[in-house]
Predict the structure.
Amino acid sequence: MVEAVSLVKRFGEVTAVDNLSFRVEKNEVLGFLGPNGAGKTTTMRMLTGYFTPTSGEVYINGISMVENPREAKRFIGYLPEHPTLYPDMRVEEYLRFVAELHGVKRMKERLDYVREVCSLSPVWSRLISQISKGFCQRVGLAMAIVHNPSVIILDEPTIGLDPEQIIETRNLIKTLGKEHSVILSTHILSEANMTCDRVMIINKGRLVGEGTPERLSENLRKKRNISLVVGSEVAKTLFSGIPVEIQKQEKLDDKFRLELSFPAEEDLCPELVRRITEAGISLYQMQEKKPTLEEIFLSLVKEAL
Amino acid sequence: MRGIGPIYKREINSYFTSPVAYVIITAFLFIAGFIFYNLLSYFALQCIQSVRYAQLYRMVPPPMNVNSWVVTPFLQNLAFIFLIVIPLLTMRLFAEEKRQGTMEMLLTAPISSWEIILGKFFAATTVFLVMLALTFIYQIMLIIHGEPDIPPVLSGYLGIFLFGLTFIALGMFISSLTKNQIVAAFVSIVLFLFLWIINWSSIFTTKTAVQDTLSYLSITEHLREFIKGVVDTKSLIFFLSLTFLGLFLTDKSLQIWRWKG
């Protein structure tokens, strides 16, 4: 369980994080979403005790990071933004070192576990300076979970990975989220959509939106967009009296694609269907276009400006 | 204090799996050996000459003291070499962690900054002790083949050991201020040289208070006492308190790093 209370971090004149408060429960995956320079990394660095907050408090399982950092850090596994590792160490040696710093008891068992889960066998006894970026990222992930922490904090965990590794890592994060509190940051929206139970959108150090990916899209749907495939062209007059706009009409081979939008307050779908069929037009497809997280994100970030 | 062990082990490995320690130790032994060889040869020459003069003038040959001809100048030169070598040992301790970004891992591990500092301090001290111990072979050779006064040899070595601790702690502090190893080494050498010559300007003042302060701050004067064979608590406290100051400032420097990033 992680709790942040009015976190503020200033670097001289610049306020990197401005009054952020949030809670992450056990078995929850929270995503920090925001453009580059939004304050995601600074926030994570305060959560992990790397940076001392200018003001505010961080509690890890109820223990204050500011007052009792040594205890609080025991519960945290952290993958930094660029998992900078010692180039002169071997992968196994490095993970053993990290585990020793965390006072891991069953060393062999834990090392075998991360070797398996992060698929590190091919590079297990290679020098870190000689392994690829993707493997470095996975060593970083292994370092974050080797001591079986209850809170896992991952700063852009899938950066530098190839598509297959990205999928593996996302699955791993989901699995970890079942037993741990996970906080991850990303600027890839689809990733947040896929892996997170809850998303916090941060811009310029402030919280601009929060909720489950679905809820976020619900809230932002001021207009609903419906896409139809019909048998013949539709005249504008067909929808007179109801607030429906025809956004686009295009001819497919022998059918027509129609894009409509109407305000979200009233559900006009049954009415649409009734009018179309009564006009003798055959209806082949009807589909609602949900806004992607990208669109929500952009509109939120723009609003905040 | 659980963290000291792993940090120490990693540092030692890093010194000895890279060429760093070997290059430094080899170069150091080359210079130290060269100095010892020359001092000893010169001493031998002087002995032969004084015997010849004595025979020529039908006198008893004057006593030749191996301590003052070999041991004392050797230890003084040794200290000066360490003044240059120790910054090479300490320059990477924190500067490299900052440059690589591994500092983030260390500072988010459940260990206190003192554990990191002491682990690194002990590791650099170990390499320093290896070098110092290897030069002790020369003294053993003197003891086997000559009759040096042993207590000043031992107190001289104690003095150089304390001197080394002081410079390691201060060098580590300077390394914690920058990301650049070269800058760390250079600033350390300049600071150590300054401490070495700080009492030179005492001749320009007649105020005894200023003179006393400058000579108390002078590393050389304290070291000279040890090499002479005098173990003075004042000098002992001087070295140990400077060492502690270096460690303390390193801790403060890490705290500032947490604030400023």
